[in-house]
């Protein structure tokens, strides 16, 4: 009979979202039972934190594959050389060129909600974190639970949202960012074809826990089907404000070596841009493929 391993040890980070996983070295291959327990913890807590990790790109990719197959991001120019599964998020310049996306996620969103089959989750590894002389760090990321946000709606509000569908458009967000950031080049026709507008239910059922989640986000949701623009904008703004309240939130203060993975159904996130170009930030992200929205 094989040796029975201790169950993984968790420390809760906030009331509705987030747990730190203690005592795991992600550079090592996980035991099948460990992977299963981590998957359960991920589905339950929405955000998992692993501190003091040191990962090669292969190890980062290998760990992420415990949870599903991996996406290749539409912005191919920011993929890690020889490792297209890794998206580079960074304000670092090399030979005068951006090595990664320098303004990623500075608005509330879930990754890849603009795809027909959105992402299950993302795994972000912190390689360099902005800091100042007194060791203060910058560039925190905030997470909210969209499941807790749904639960907090009144029954009549939940009933009003049942059956509604919303449009998600990557190109709309990209164009807004491009107006503020000259390093963002125009999307090519091929890239546009890769991310056509999609429609998803406003209320989504989590594929593993069965919890209902509010699935509209400021980043990519552009309208509610069958509503006037005015009514749609009003309802969306109300839902965005509701979801992103502090009571549903965990704010993560990054350390170099952190690996944070989050659920792209039951959470939304926002990257705080409170640092300058003289404060380097370098993160590697993998993105796990999800299942069709229901
Ligand atoms: Fe993101």
UniProtKB/TrEMBL annotation:
CC terms in the record's Gene Ontology section: cytoplasm
Tagged with keyword Transmembrane helix: no
Coiled-coil boundaries: 167-194
GO biological process: sulfur compound metabolic process
SUPFAM superfamilies linked to this entry: Clavaminate synthase-like (SSF51197)
Pfam family membership, one: TauD
Domain TauD/TfdA-like: 11-287
Keywords for the protein's UniProt record, in alphabetical order: Coiled coil, Dioxygenase, Iron, Metal-binding, Oxidoreductase
Keyword Iron attached: yes
Position of the signal peptide: none
GO molecular function: metal ion binding; taurine dioxygenase activity
Family to which the UniProt record says this protein belongs: Belongs to the TfdA dioxygenase family.
Name this polypeptide is given: Taurine dioxygenase
């Amino acid at each position: 009979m094989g040796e029975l391993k201790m169950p993984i040890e968790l420390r809760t980070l906030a009331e509705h979202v987030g747990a730190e996983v203690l005592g795991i070295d992600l550079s090592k291959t996980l035991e099948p039972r460990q992977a299963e327990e981590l998957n359960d913890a991920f589905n339950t807590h929405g955000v998992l934190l692993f501190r003091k990790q040191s990962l090669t790109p292969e190890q980062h990719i290998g760990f992420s594959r415990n949870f599903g197959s991996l996406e290749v991001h539409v912005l191919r120019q920011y993929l890690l050389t020889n490792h297209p599964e890794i998206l580079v998020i960074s304000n670092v310049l090399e030979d005068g060129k951006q090595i990664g996306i320098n303004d990623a996620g500075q608005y509330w969103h879930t990754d890849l909600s603009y795809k027909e089959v959105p992402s299950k989750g993302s795994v972000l590894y912190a390689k360099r974190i902005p800091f100042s002389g007194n060791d203060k760090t910058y560039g925190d990321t905030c997470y909210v639970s969209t499941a807790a946000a749904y639960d907090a709606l009144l029954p009549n509000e939940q009933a009003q949202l049942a059956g509604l569908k919303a449009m998600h458009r990557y190109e709309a967000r990209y164009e807004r960012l491009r107006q503020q950031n000259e390093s963002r080049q125009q999307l090519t026709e091929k890239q546009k074809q890769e991310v056509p507008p999609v429609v998803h239910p406003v209320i989504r059922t989590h594929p593993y826990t069965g919890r209902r989640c509010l699935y509209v986000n400021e980043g990519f949701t552009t309208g509610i089907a069958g509503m006037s623009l005015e009514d749609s904008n009003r309802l969306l703004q109300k839902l965005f404000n509701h979801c992103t309240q502090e009571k549903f939130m965990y704010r993560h203060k990054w350390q170099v070596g952190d690996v944070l993975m989050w659920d792209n159904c039951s959470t939304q996130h926002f990257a705080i841009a409170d640092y300058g170009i003289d404060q380097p930030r370098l993160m590697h992200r993998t993105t796990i493929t999800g299942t069709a929205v229901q």
